[in-house]
Design goal:
Elements: H1 2-20, E1 55-65, E2 71-82, E3 95-104, E4 109-117, E5 123-126, E6 131-134, E7 137-141, E8 148-154, E9 159-165
Antiparallel strand pairs: 1-2, 2-3, 3-4, 5-6, 6-7, 7-8, 8-9
């Protein structure tokens, strides 16, 4: 009988895990604001954090031309996920961060991830001037127009520390961002 109960419990685990989504992110999130279509995006304010939302991210991709004549790509993403609504400070801050960075060439794709918490100087996002960081990974602008920026990622198999200059308009994700 004990073996049958254990088998039943184990058979239910995949369904329970799937229903919860990644870390419960598929579950209802009372107390958080829901994004609404048609809300205008306003920079520089919208470069910064939106603590009333449960999850958000900052994302950069760039195509680069090396001194060796080859093309390269980089990607840098920082995700913020609030564990519960409401502001907190220091160790009471209820936000966790996860970052992903990658570098590519025609023959290579290397990537790394890191995770940390907010409130204790390990990961934060500021709107003006924009600065997002997690440990020693940084994405920051030199001005509110993002005409110049810097992006840094360090991992065992690769690292980059790039000065960037914007030469076109922002590309908004989805329908009008």
């Amino acid at each position: 009988m004990k073996d049958k109960a254990m088998a039943l419990l184990l058979s239910l685990l995949p369904a329970f895990a799937q229903a919860q989504g990644y870390a419960g992110m598929g579950a209802p999130a009372p107390g958080f604001e829901t994004p609404k279509p048609g809300t205008p995006i306003v920079f520089p304010k919208d470069h910064g954090p939106h603590p009333s939302f449960r999850t958000e991210w900052w994302y950069l991709t760039a195509n680069l031309h090396g001194a060796d004549g080859q093309t390269y790509g980089i990607q840098w993403t920082l995700f913020r996920h609030a564990l519960e609504p409401g502001a907190g400070a220091g160790w009471d801050d209820r936000n966790v961060f996860m970052a992903h960075a990658a570098a590519t060439s025609a023959t290579t794709h290397v990537f790394a991830e890191t995770a940390s918490r907010a409130g204790v100087g390990q990961a934060e996002v500021e709107a003006s001037p924009f600065r997002a960081f997690i440990d020693d990974w940084i994405f920051e602008s030199q001005d509110d127009a993002f005409t110049k920026a810097r992006v840094v990622a360090k991992a065992p198999r690769f690292s980059y520390d790039l000065a960037l200059m914007r030469n076109g308009p922002f590309v908004l994700q989805g329908e009008a961002g």
